[in-house]
Write a structure and sequence with these properties.
The complex is a heterodimer of chains A (298) and B (204). Chain A has 298 residues and is an alpha/beta fold. Chain A is built from 10 helices and 14 strands. In chain B, 85% of the residues lie in helices and 0% in strands. The chains are: A alpha/beta (298), B mainly alpha (204).
């Protein structure tokens, strides 16, 4: 099992010129968990991941691992693998490499690299690593990033949209491989994804990033279990959810639907004439991030 | 990361070997029969300079972004680059010294040795500038900057500072320089392709 590491981020800010991409992020990631990072396009997910792993300098704030700063700290950096999407295209010098050469480069830089695992995964994915990466499909490039992430054996492994371009069969295979590796080693994984429902069963904790801020960080199952969609006549719905944390109201004529997130000890007044339904993680995400249609009310 | 230094060391040896072969080829095809060995040596230096620039550009285009994406610190990379530069300068000076001894009268051996060292220090700097330009500006503009600096810095300095060049300054005619510059630009393209397609294959 892996050493107990705690990655902490305090007051993190990141700006590109005048544009503020990350705003006062405070985050603690404990070892031995699978975290999911979800957010809309442009929310700042990739920026956050690149700053956490010191590939991008923060404008302000501090990132530490077990109290030691991460930035330009070789010992701290040895704990990370940030496997991100490889951009194919003839203008990209890295993409012009052959898959096997890129994997060989990865083996040089990751101190815990497992060559046997990398070769097994290449066979598992039936990947032709002799081809230049610029000739590989988006799905095959995703497989390479997955191989690097898993074979790196880094205590903190971060995957940015690892399943982009993969078909449903390969996505299921990825989640199974991830769980197997997690069970065997107890490594920490942080996965950013847009395919929320598929990943929900795998993610132990979910972090929702919206407009450069963390909206929520919570155990996935607990979040799902305390969230409901209440619908019915507007007057009844308002009575049923009075005093509760709600968001994303939708009105259709005299009817209304609203998402409720219960705190400990709270309940929805089920004596009212309303329909109470469980909501999925993606519905919770949409409700929380919904700027135009709803407000986040306490 | 010890493996980082092994990688840069092997890369520097490989670049040196290919640079020597390339520079010799460049020198002999660019000099007319009957020209003195000093001209051959000068063009040899120019060829080596081109290859050295290619190496730095390659680093900034690919090796450095890749290494950072794999978690290497920038300090470690700079140490690796300096390590590569020290080895390549030492090897180039040693090779040029030996060739000078064989090809030219010993009285200008010292001059050529110093010129080599100075040119390589200049081109290592230019190489880093060019590499950063490619990294920051993108391939097209970066290569344009590199060609201009390569032609001006490498060929111009090599030509004028050499013993022959000093003699020819009073008779300088830019038209004489243009064919050399065109040749350098053309051969730069070949060097770039060789570097990308062949050298890195053996660097790991």
């Amino acid at each position: 099992m892996m050493e107990n590491l705690i990655l902490e981020c305090k007051g993190l800010k990141k700006s590109y010129g005048k544009k503020e991409v990350l705003r006062d992020i405070n985050l603690t990631l404990e070892s031995g968990k699978i975290y999911g990072l979800i957010g809309r396009n442009g929310a700042g997910k990739t920026t956050l991941l690149s700053v956490l792993t010191a590939q991008n300098p923060a404008t302000d704030g501090e990132i530490t691992i077990n109290g030691e700063k991460v930035w330009e700290n070789e010992k701290a950096l040895n704990n990370f693998c940030f496997s991100r999407e490889i951009m194919a295209g003839t203008q990209n010098a890295i993409a012009s490499m052959k898959g096997k050469d890129y994997l060989k480069a990865a083996s040089i830089y990751f101190p815990y690299w497992d060559e046997e695992m990398a070769e097994e995964l290449i066979k598992e994915f039936e990947l032709d690593v002799k081809k230049p990466m610029v000739k590989l499909s988006k799905g095959m490039l995703s497989m390479i990033t997955i191989i690097i992430a898993l074979a790196s054996k880094a205590p903190f492994t971060i995957l940015d949209e690892p399943v982009a371009g993969l078909d449903v069969f390969m996505r299921k295979k990825f989640y199974q491989l991830l769980l197997d590796e997690y069970t065997k080693t107890g490594r920490t994984f942080l996965i950013s994804t847009h395919i929320i429902e598929e990943a929900a069963d795998v993610l132990e904790e979910v972090i929702i990033l919206h407009d450069g801020k963390i909206l929520l960080k919570e155990n996935t199952q607990e979040l799902i279990q305390r969230s409901f969609r209440v619908s019915g006549l507007e007057s009844e719905v308002k009575k049923a959810v009075k005093g509760l944390e709600t968001c994303s109201p939708e009105r259709t004529g005299r009817g209304m639907g609203i998402t409720v997130m219960l705190k400990e000890g709270e309940t929805i007044d089920d004596t009212c004439d309303v329909t109470i339904q469980p909501v999925s993680l993606s519905d919770i995400f949409v409700a929380l991030c919904n700027e135009k249609e709803g407000t986040y009310e306490k | 990361m010890k493996s980082n230094f092994r990688y840069f060391f092997r890369l520097s040896i490989l670049y040196w070997l290919f640079s020597m072969a390339y520079a010799l080829f460049f020198a002999f095809i660019s000099c007319d029969p009957g020209e003195g060995m000093e001209d051959v040596l000068i063009m040899f230096l120019v060829g080596y300079i081109i290859m050295n620039l290619c190496a730095h550009i390659g680093f900034y285009k690919r090796e450095i972004p890749m290494a950072i994406s794999f978690g290497s610190s920038r300090k470690n990379l700079i140490r690796g680059l300096i390590f590569y530069d020290v080895i390549s300068v030492f090897l180039a000076c040693a090779t040029t010294g030996v060739l000078s001894k064989i090809l030219v009268p010993s009285k200008i051996l010292g001059v050529i040795f110093l010129v080599t060292l100075m040119l390589l220090l200049i081109t290592n700097f230019f190489g880093m500038v060019c590499g950063i330009c490619i990294y920051r500006l993108g391939k097209i503009y970066g290569i344009l900057v590199n060609i201009i600096l390569c032609a001006a810095g490498g060929a111009g300095v090599a030509y004028f500072i050499s013993a022959k060049g000093v003699q020819k300054i009073s008779n300088f005619n830019i038209a004489n320089l243009i064919p050399v510059l065109v040749l350098i630009v053309l051969l730069y393209g070949i060097a770039h392709l060789v570097q990308i397609r062949v050298l890195r294959k053996y660097a790991f």
